[in-house]
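Tokens in:
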């Protein structure tokens, strides 16, 4: 049954499957991470703690967890170190939303179990969407080990893959966990542009560019903005630094190939999207999660970091955006680029700006431009 199940998972397009006991092993580490507040505003991670600790609250009579992995395309080049006037989108997010692609396949695997057992056994799928510690189960199931960058990686696939889990009442023999092969390497830790790693396997999400560009809903801390470069949705730097990726096979799944205009992203086009155009442009994409105001906030920072005068006109337009979040970051970006037209536009915006936080951003930007001129 176990081998047939793994074969079915591969038929469904997964790149690996393994079996774990329904008992998380890293709960204490996870609780400690939450207790230290390193998850920032991701309150959903702290909710439903009992279900995370005891998966029988998610599926009564659970006997096994089936973990599956699915590769996505690695970046075609090293993450940008030099700032370009175009935006970088994390490679997992350049195609279709992985939840939409993988959940039906995992549900199909669950139905296969039900059919094979004559309806005697049930299954429930989670793909980065519920209170299940997917990485924990993937490690227990032998699909990889916890890298120092906190993601799971394997000798066969590197670290460019998604993880899903299927809880089931079917008793299956657990697989052996994979051994840790990080050794003395620490490339991922030093690759982080914002120094978000406190220690190996301990990430301060509040500094992580993935958190800042996707999860954080408000203003991005000013001191971190210059470190974000041109990254507008997620960051691949720690993953791309891992030497095990050289053994990974290219991924050809059509749904995960980069959509047109996302590799790289046209920042000017993004800054000019209204709500309806944003929803249409990113329908079925993980980028919807950032919402329009979040993505434009990120794009404004990337334009500011480009330092290019060509970015000034669209940033001046953004000073009149309906969202204060966008206006404030556009002001910051104009202050960073500088120049006469940016200065004049900021002064004019200050006179009409109703929001106190945006006013503060404009005043700070003008102050810094003044210092530059001095
Ligand atoms: S870069 Fe090095 S330390 Fe980081 S996950 Fe890869 S092997 Fe481990």
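Residues out:
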């Amino acid at each position: 049954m176990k081998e047939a199940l793994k074969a079915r998972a591969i038929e469904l397009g997964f790149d690996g499957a393994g079996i774990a006991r329904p008992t998380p092993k890293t709960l204490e580490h996870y609780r400690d991470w939450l207790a230290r507040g390193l998850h920032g505003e991701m309150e959903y991670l702290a909710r439903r703690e009992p279900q995370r600790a005891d998966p029988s609250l998610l599926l009564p009579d659970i006997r096994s967890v089936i973990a599956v992995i699915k590769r996505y395309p690695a970046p075609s080049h090293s993450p940008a170190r030099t700032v370009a006037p175009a935006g970088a989108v994390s490679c997992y997010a350049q195609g279709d939303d992985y939840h939409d692609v993988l959940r039906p396949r995992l549900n199909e695997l669950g139905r296969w179990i039900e059919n094979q057992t004559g309806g005697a056994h049930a299954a429930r799928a989670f793909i980065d969407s519920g209170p299940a510690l997917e990485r924990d189960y993937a490690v227990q199931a032998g699909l990889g080990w916890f890298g120092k960058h906190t993601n799971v990686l394997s000798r066969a696939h590197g670290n460019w893959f998604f993880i899903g889990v299927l809880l089931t009442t079917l008793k299956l023999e657990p697989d052996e966990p994979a051994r840790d092969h990080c050794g003395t390497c620490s490339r991922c830790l030093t690759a982080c542009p914002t120094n978000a790693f406190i220690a190996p396997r301990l990430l301060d999400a509040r500094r992580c560019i993935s958190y800042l560009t996707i999860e954080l809903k408000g203003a991005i801390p000013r001191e971190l903005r210059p470190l974000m470069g041109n990254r507008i949705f997620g960051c691949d730097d720690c993953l791309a630094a891992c030497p095990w990726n050289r053994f990974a096979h290219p991924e050809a799944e059509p749904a995960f190939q980069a959509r047109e205009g996302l590799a790289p992203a046209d920042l000017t086009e993004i800054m000019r999207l209204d709500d309806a155009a944003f929803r249409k442009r990113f329908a079925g994409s993980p980028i919807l999660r950032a919402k329009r105001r979040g993505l434009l906030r990120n794009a404004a920072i990337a334009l500011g970091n480009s330092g290019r005068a060509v970015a000034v006109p669209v940033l001046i337009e953004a000073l009149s955006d309906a969202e204060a979040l966008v206006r404030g970051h556009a002001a910051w970006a104009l202050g960073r680029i500088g120049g006469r037209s940016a200065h004049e536009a900021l002064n004019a915006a200050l006179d009409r700006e109703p929001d106190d936080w945006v006013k503060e951003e404009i005043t700070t930007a003008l102050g810094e431009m003044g210092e530059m001129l001095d």
